Automatic annotation (TrEMBL):
The chain crosses the membrane at residues 43-62. The lineage of its organism: Bacteria, Pseudomonadati, Myxococcota, Myxococcia, Myxococcales. InterPro entries: LTXXQ. Keywords: Membrane, Transmembrane, Transmembrane helix. It comes from the Bacteria. This is Periplasmic heavy metal sensor.
Amino acid sequence: MPSSHFFTPGSNHRNPRLPYWLQSSSGKDNPTHLESHAMKKTLAIAGTAVVAVTLLTGFGFGRHHRGTPDPERINQMVTWKLDDKLDDLNATEAQRTSIHAVKDRLLSEGQSLMEGQQAARAEAVTQLESATPDATKLHALVDARIDAARAFAHKAVDAVLEVHRTLTPAQRQELASDIREHTGAK
């Protein structure tokens, strides 16, 4: 395919990867550009609001038709998957012990995160049932959940680094190849 068919910044070609409503017409000199910019800003604000409601109510955050997931079932599934991967990597018993300790610690912290989510959800519902919900409390709930999720994400990164130090260079390479294959990353 000729290179002229691909989107290049500054060209009049539209980016085929963006939905039409996020693409501006022909540039900043176009009068509809301001309307397009305002629409993008509105969509970003709306998206943020949807995320906030999702965090507060718990929709999509580990829930399914049966309600809150069972921590023991999650532990069992993660352990099975981890053991399969450790078998593929020919992990030693010492590596398995170390990596399982990391998994147990992370799952425990994840359970605490979910418990905090359930408490925040209950408070959000209480506020929304009120004739005059307290916006300050709702915003504080969102901020607290985001802070808790950020702290957990940092702990997860630290756990990945700990596992990285536990594996041999050959095992790390094999794991990276598996991840690339699974995720389509190059």
